[in-house]
Design goal:
Layout: E1 3-8, H1 19-28, E2 31-37, H2 41-50, E3 57-61, H3 73-85, E4 89-98, H4 106-123, E5 127-132, H5 135-146, E6 152-154, H6 161-169, E7 173-176, H7 186-194, E8 200-202, H8 224-234, H9 239-253
Helix pairs in contact: 3-4, 8-9
Length: 261
Amino acid sequence: MHLIDTHCHLVSDKLKNNLPEIIERAKECGVQKIINIAYNPQTIILAQEQIKTSDILYATLGIQPHDAKEFSTEEAEKVRHIALSNNKIVGIGEIGLDAHYTLSSMDKQIECFEYFLQIALDTNLPIVVHMRETHNEVFSRIKKYSKKGLKGVIHCFTGTLEQAKDYLSEDFYLSFSGIVTFKNAAELQEVAKYVPRDKILIETDSPYLSPVPLRGKTNEPAHILHTCEFIAKLRNLKPDELAEMTAKNSEDLFYRLRSPV
């Protein structure tokens, strides 16, 4: 099995103290690469230290909408510098817009998002996008920046088929988490069947969103196997076929995953 977890938070309090065991369990399930997502100034520091501990660990750096109140150009420019100097930084994110929670003002979220979009262009790295109840606002900016060469993924996609088609029209990838395995996710399962084979990714978003049959438990990269098996069945594929497909897509998008470390 050749699995890549394209989105997890090993920087989280629930996972950061058990890294060796978590990585070993992931390897036992066929996970060959893990992208550790930093999302605020504190986790940006931690993620850089964590990726030194294992050859299968990579990271993306950004400030997510919830933490946009912590955004400053100084912090963003630190990310630019690190991304240009460290080949194990494979993307910019997570970044985006979230109207469900109001932990940061929308004005601050937009300022943060747009600044990091420009950094992604300047560094030639893909973006990892958090989008919740903000499709129009996010898509309008992706459409503008994709014309300039921006690439990326909508992580933990839970939108409609029409929204999926919008992002696909701009050559973006869609990533599916354990949510797709939930009983009430019929519409999302249809989207997972529809996405072209060269634009689908899988992720855990651990420690959140454990897939069935582990729903409610702390998630970790090893659990991506359940999501892989579920989507493979949806698409009438063998699990190892879905794993290879999504691993190739991951390496196409996050091209630094292919580079020797």
